[in-house]
Write a structure and sequence with these properties.
mainly beta; 7-stranded mixed sheet; 4-stranded antiparallel sheet; about 0% helix
C-alpha cells in the first residue's frame, strides 16, 4: 500500500507564496512519476504539474506556467509544489498523485494516469 500525505496548504493573500509537500510512504519513491492536481469547489479535478522519476523532466498546465514549480527529493521520498504570485483563482484543494509507470504524454495530465492519491490540502487565496 502506497500512502501519500500532502501538507503546506493554508490561507494567503493574493501575491503570496506557498510550498506544498507530498510525503510518500514507500522506499521506491524514485520509481514513481509524481503529479499535482487541483480541484476548486464545484469543478472537476485538473492537472497542474508533473515530474518524472529523476526530476529531469517537468510539465505544467498553461495556467500555472511561470508561477508554479514542481520538484522532488528522492532521498526524502517527497515531492513539492512551489506556488508563487498566488491568485484568487488558485483557490482549490491540491492533490498529489503517484504514477507507477512511464511519463507518457496524454496520460500524465489525466487523473486516470495515476495509481495513488493523497487526501488533499486546501489552498485559499484572498484578494
Amino acid at each position: 500500500q502506497v500512502r501519500l500525505v500532502e501538507s503546506g496548504g493554508g490561507l494567503v493573500h493574493a501575491g503570496g507564496s506557498l510550498r506544498l509537500s507530498c510525503a510518500v510512504s514507500r522506499r521506491i519513491f524514485s520509481e514513481y512519476v509524481m503529479g499535482w492536481f487541483r480541484q476548486a469547489a464545484g469543478e472537476e479535478r485538473e492537472f497542474v504539474a508533473v515530474i518524472n522519476q529523476s526530476g529531469s523532466r517537468k510539465n505544467y498546465a498553461d495556467s500555472v506556467k511561470g508561477r508554479f514549480t514542481i520538484s522532488r527529493d528522492n532521498a526524502k521520498n517527497t515531492a513539492y509544489l512551489q506556488i508563487d504570485n498566488l491568485k484568487p483563482e488558485d483557490t482549490a484543494v491540491y492533490y498529489c498523485a503517484a504514477r507507477d509507470g512511464p511519463m507518457t504524454a496524454g496520460v500524465i495530465t489525466t487523473t486516470i494516469g495515476y495509481d495513488y492519491w493523497g487526501q488533499g490540502t486546501q489552498v485559499t487565496v484572498s484578494s
